Amino acid sequence: MHPECVTVAEFVPFPDRYEPPVSPEEALSTFHDAMRRRRSVREFSDKPVPREIIEWLVRCAHTAPSGANKQPWRFVCVQNPAVKQKIREAAEKEEREFYSHRANEEWLKDLAPLGTDETKEFLTVAPWLVIVFQLVQDDDGSQVYYLKESVGLASGMFLAAAQLAGLATLTHTPSPMKFLGEVLQRPDNERAFLLIPVGYSADDCRVPKKALLRKPIDDVMIVV
């Protein structure tokens, strides 16, 4: 494309800037207090979650930055019990292969303390399954850029928004995930990226002891 054919975006003074009502330290402390309580939940309540709340979660995720502003994501939100059952059956089939043949010994050893196996009851108990798809090509056939980075950012913002709403989530990645596109009849330009059960944790929900999972800040932050 010749430079003279390119439409240049109109630049305007930065509108609608967000200014927290408290100091940055207070705002971040409040946010951290919510996020530090987030856990990967596998024991969900069947308590309903209104569709409006799921829509707000997607709206929050949809504010994420993306390469060339292509927004290469699609959030397929499933509440239909029959469709959830199909997803569970297909996921458990892949997970049986994973635990029996695909995962090496080190991988299985790392998973052992978490007590996970091929049974994925949460896929039918959680009121919503949100499957994040990445668009490997835009709907109009044009290129997308920094695909995984963009979709990863949007997914992270979805998880953060769910935590702020008091909801429980899990990042589930049965591998391979091609079956999700087939069950949900998604077009060829979409590839499943992440499956997120969304709901409330069960009253008797149990999770691994926190001290076993989170590295100290000095292990993950380096100041130069």
Can you put this structure into words, describing what you see?
By secondary structure, the protein is of the alpha+beta class. The protein has a four-stranded antiparallel β-sheet with strand order 1-2-4-3. Helix 2 packs across helix 6 (147-164). The mean pLDDT is 94. It has helices at residues 24-35, 51-61, 81-102, 105-111, 122-125, 147-164, 178-183, 217-220, and strands spanning 73-78, 128-135, 168-169, 190-199. The chain has a single domain, classed as NADH Oxidase. It is built from eight helices and four strands. Helix content is 38%, strand content 12%.
CATH class: Alpha Beta
Radius of gyration: 20 Å
The H/E string reads HHEHHHEHEHEH
Number of domains: 1
> Quick one: how many beta strands?
4
Strand content: 5-15%
CATH topology: NADH Oxidase
Low-confidence stretches: none
Major β-sheet annotation: 4 strands, antiparallel
Annotated CATH homologous superfamily: NADH Oxidase
Overall mean pLDDT stands at 94
Identify the overall geometry: globular
Count of helical stretches: 8
Q: Going across the biggest sheet, name each strand in turn.
A: 1-2-4-3
